[in-house]
Write a structure and sequence with these properties.
By secondary structure, the chain is of the alpha/beta class. The protein has 10 helices and 7 strands. The longest helix is centred in the middle third of the chain and has 29 residues. The protein is globular. Belongs to the short-chain dehydrogenases/reductases (SDR) family.
Amino acid sequence: MVEAVQDAGVVVTGAGGGIGAALARRFAAEGARVVVNDLDAGKARAVAEEIGGTAVPGDASAVVAEARDALGGTVDVYCANAGVAFEDGDLDGPLDERTWAASWDVNLMAHVRAAHALLPDWLERGGGRFVSTVSAAGLLTMIGAPSYSVTKHGAYAFAEWLSLTYRHRGIKVHAICPQGVRTDMLAATGSAGDLVLQPTAIEPAAVADALFEGIEQDRFLILPHPEVAGFYQARATEPERWLATMNHIQQKWQTGR
């Protein structure tokens, strides 16, 4: 058992399935009191009933106050897990600004709003834990999904900013950056996901395992796919080579070869 989360009040957004449900199950198994949030009320209630938690369905951007009440007045751990992904394709075709707006709102601004609501209490108490489900796309990029890639970069930058700004005041931040995870979101990525993500895809429970290992080791960056560290290093140190490699993958996807 991880002592840091025993009897903690935990909120997991987007927890009706996939990574969110796996996180909710793991926190409950470790002795935490869990609020399960999802836009789909039925899915939220099903997971909450399974783990002995409390369902608080609705928009992840506005869940903090109701979740805090459900937990008896205190949120100790907040998992900003809800996310959206669209196969936008390229920008030489029609621009759907609705997908970009939705991506900004859910993948980034929901995190900002949650932190804004949580920080006054956390800073007064001298502690709190913010877990951001980012994606390896936030460290690297993802072909065929510009709005997802760009907003996940924003989510990573925000988590990084939170950590460097508040760690000396007791705030713990973790950024989870997996590649492919066998969820409905992966299934919706289409041919790009089949090419890039499916070959090394892992189960959602493996993401939860990686987070708890990171909590025990007090690590900010959580990489359920360890190879992402090498890709991230290559992107930083050899950007031209990295971009050429990614462009080769882009061409392979476009031509189907």
